[in-house]
Amino acid sequence: MTEAQPLLTVRGVKTYYGKIIALKGVDVDVRAGEIVTMIGANGAGKSTLMMTIFGNPQAREGSITYEGRDITKMPSHLIARLGIAQSPEGRRIFPRMTVFENLQMGAAVRDLAHFDEDLEKICVLFPRIKERLQQRGGTLSGGEQQMVAIARALMARPKLLLLDEPSLGLAPLIVKQIFEAIRELNKTEGLTVFLVEQNAFHALKLAHRGYVMVNGLITMSGTGQELLANPQVRAAYLEGGRH
């Protein structure tokens, strides 16, 4: 990886819920073409960071820069138009809409000019989606809903994809399919991915670089391989975990 200007720069970010501080001064860089992952225990602040980058909640201190532009106080809908898409924790697809309509909602963030072409790509990436296009979102399995959530984000043609806990509660085979799809998108389309994930083993294997978050602070960073091999990381997140 060349040391280019980061696509996304997070500096000294502090985020609060009321008087409770969730992020205590976070620094993160994501360069174009990378898969960067953040691991940490439940409640460490990983999802809060994802939501803060996407503008809801907004950081109370620090700065978030995307393509050299300060987006710290920008509302989410404007951030989306800049080329950042989010697949949030818990999937959150529109349950009463069909899969096809969910994908249309994703594409509408930018424009619908490439809809047919992008839909075709999605159906190759996730063949299961092709079979379910006319089915309502709420009737899908958890794994299928997760695929739709990621596909909906991709329909906006993002430069940066924020993925929050894509493997949560899913069977190992589905997890493998989702992580393979992320790898493929990064390799063939050059998509930049920032991934928050409790499944540390899969996430670090996939990532070029990773960060460890503990109680709202970054405690460690390195390449995916370095963190996989780190004894502290192994003891805290990999021993007895899902491999």
From TrEMBL:
Organism listed in the record: Bosea vaviloviae
GO molecular function: ATP binding; ATP hydrolysis activity; branched-chain amino acid transmembrane transporter activity
UniProt cross-references to PANTHER family, sorted A to Z: HIGH-AFFINITY BRANCHED-CHAIN AMINO ACID TRANSPORT ATP-BINDING PROTEIN LIVF
Entry-linked SMART domains: AAA
Family: Belongs to the ABC transporter superfamily.
Keyword presence, Nucleotide-binding: yes
GO biological process assignments: L-amino acid transport
InterPro entries named in the record: AAA+_ATPase (IPR003593), ABC_branched_ATPase_LivF/BraG (IPR030660), ABC_transporter-like_ATP-bd (IPR003439), ABC_transporter-like_CS (IPR017871), BCAA_Transport_ATP-bd_LivF (IPR052156), P-loop_NTPase (IPR027417)
Residue ranges of every copy of the ABC transporter domain listed in the record: 8-240
PROSITE patterns linked: ABC_TRANSPORTER_1, ABC_TRANSPORTER_2
A Pfam entry, by short name: ABC_tran
Keywords: Amino-acid transport, ATP-binding, Nucleotide-binding, Transport
CDD domains named in the record: ABC_TM1139_LivF_branched (cd03224)
Protein name in UniProt: ABC transporter ATP-binding protein
